[in-house]
Amino acid sequence: MEERRNEGVKLEFLYPVGGKAAELILPGRIVTCKANDTDGMQPFRVLDIQPQGKDTMCVTAQHLAIWTLNARAVAPIQTATRTGAAAAQAIQAASYGALGVQLSSDITTPNTHGSTMPKTALEAVVGSEGSLVDIYGGIVHANGMAVGVEANRGADRGVTAAYGVNLISLEMEQSMGKFASHIFPIWHDTEGGGLVTLPEREIDLGAPAGMPKCTRVVDLSEKFQDAPTVTQLREAALRYAVENYSNTAEVSIQASFLPLWYAEEYKGNVEEKKA
């Protein structure tokens, strides 16, 4: 099981080819399992099945609520000042047909929210410029067929994670693989030889001071059938940058820890508090 902040929950498991349920595990089917110690059983859509040796298959699945949001479209939303909770309701109401997922947010801070073009429901919630998370912040929490954008995930119990107590492992990776400080978008007509660029050539993506300049030249010709206007090219370039690049070095932290209620020396204290 792998959960990344605001990127979804992925399930990967091995299953014997001759196992009792092997014939039932097919792409598109739904499997359920526990994703953490606090939420109930979670549904996952099987996406990929690969052989792992002679007698085993490796199954990859995505949380069903996140998969569903990525498979539904929502209409443009009129720009207005809304709280995060109201923005979640606006996205829900803008769905073309039943969304199939209950959206919510506990963020009550007002901000300007809206969109000018159709997009997937997942893009409206997270992962694109102008999304609910982009405007209000917060953390996406998928639980069953409900997706909430929460100001804070979980609760502060005053417990510190420390090696030798409850922290088992901590690994941090940093990567410049998707870093870009500027993006240089172009559109060209291979037959007619036409070329569209921006007057400013590059768009500054706002990299922090001290980061090196790194300009990504991006051909957006496939995004437009005819020559785009400068405004259209700029907007497409910004969307592309948000979806594909980061203006800082990406940091990935993987932490494994033991919930204290599993430790013998803490069990009595936890049971007393529950009582």
Key attributes of the depicted protein:
18 strands, alpha+beta, 275 residues, single chain, four-stranded mixed β-sheet, five-stranded antiparallel β-sheet
Q: Can you describe this structure?
A:
It is a single chain. The protein is α+β, with helices and mostly antiparallel strands. It is built from six helices and 18 strands. The strands form six sheets. It has a five-stranded antiparallel sheet. Strands 14, 15, 16 and 17 form a four-stranded mixed sheet that branches. The longest helix is centred in the last third of the chain and has 15 residues, at 230-244. The chain is globular and about 65 Å long. The model is unreliable at 270-275 (pLDDT under 50).
Main-sheet strand order equals 1-2-5-4-3
Give me the number of helical elements: 6
Shape label: globular
Structural class: alpha+beta
CA-CA gap between termini: 32 Å
Number of beta-strand segments? 18
Strand % is 25-35%
Mean pLDDT: 85
- How would you classify the quaternary structure? single chain
Uncertain residue ranges:
270-275
Q: Helix coverage percent of residues?
A: 10-25%
Question: What's a quick, concise take on this entry?
Answer:
The chain is of the alpha+beta class and 275 residues long. Helices cover 19% and strands 35% of the residues. The protein has helices at residues 64-70, 84-93, 121-125, 132-136, 230-244, 264-274; strands at residues 2-4, 8-16, 30-34, 41-51, 56-63, 73-74, 80-83, 102-105, 110-113, 119-120, 139-143, 146-150, 167-175, 182-188, 195-196, 203-204, 215-219, 250-257.
